[in-house]
């Protein structure tokens, strides 16, 4: 099986030694995205809905670079610094996914990179 790194300038650049996504066979693993604006690397720090929207826009860009879309998502992992934001993030997520929804986990964590409130990663299934 070939492993292929996927990177695009339409999503924020990686903050460390990792790829924005990696394809392994029919599966594409998208790295966690935080609410950074591509190009400027400006953080969205307003309410959680605005942060989540930017994160899903970033994930959309990486999905497209991989040859797919969020419609190809089979798993979503959400990390929040406050589970009180759960419903607001659900409301934003509904704007990016249709039924049948991908499987999902959502956990509260002590902290996230750059002090943001949300980080989301996605796994896509893209048959070759």
TrEMBL record:
Its EC number is 3.5.99.10. It is an enzyme of class 3 (hydrolase). Keywords: Hydrolase. InterPro entries: RidA, RidA_CS, RutC-like_sf, YjgF/YER057c/UK114. One of its GO terms (cellular component) is cytosol. GO terms for molecular function: 2-iminobutanoate/2-iminopropanoate deaminase. CDD domains: YjgF_YER057c_UK114_family (cd00448). PANTHER family: 2-IMINOBUTANOATE/2-IMINOPROPANOATE DEAMINASE RIDA, 2-IMINOBUTANOATE_2-IMINOPROPANOATE DEAMINASE. Belongs to the RutC family. This is 2-iminobutanoate/2-iminopropanoate deaminase. It comes from BD1-7 clade bacterium.
């Amino acid at each position: 099986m070939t492993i292929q790194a996927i990177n695009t300038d339409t999503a924020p650049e990686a903050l460390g030694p990792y790829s924005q996504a990696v394809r392994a066979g029919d599966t594409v693993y998208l790295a966690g995205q935080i609410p950074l604006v591509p190009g400027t690397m400006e953080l969205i720090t307003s309410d959680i809905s605005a942060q989540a929207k930017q994160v899903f826009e970033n994930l959309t860009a990486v999905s497209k670079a991989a040859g797919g879309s969020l419609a190809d998502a089979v798993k979503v992992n959400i990390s929040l610094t406050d589970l009180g934001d759960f419903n607001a993030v659900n409301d934003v997520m509904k704007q990016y996914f249709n039924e049948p929804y991908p499987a999902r986990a959502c956990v509260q964590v002590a902290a996230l990179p750059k002090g943001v409130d949300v980080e989301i990663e996605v796994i896509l299934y893209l048959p070759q």
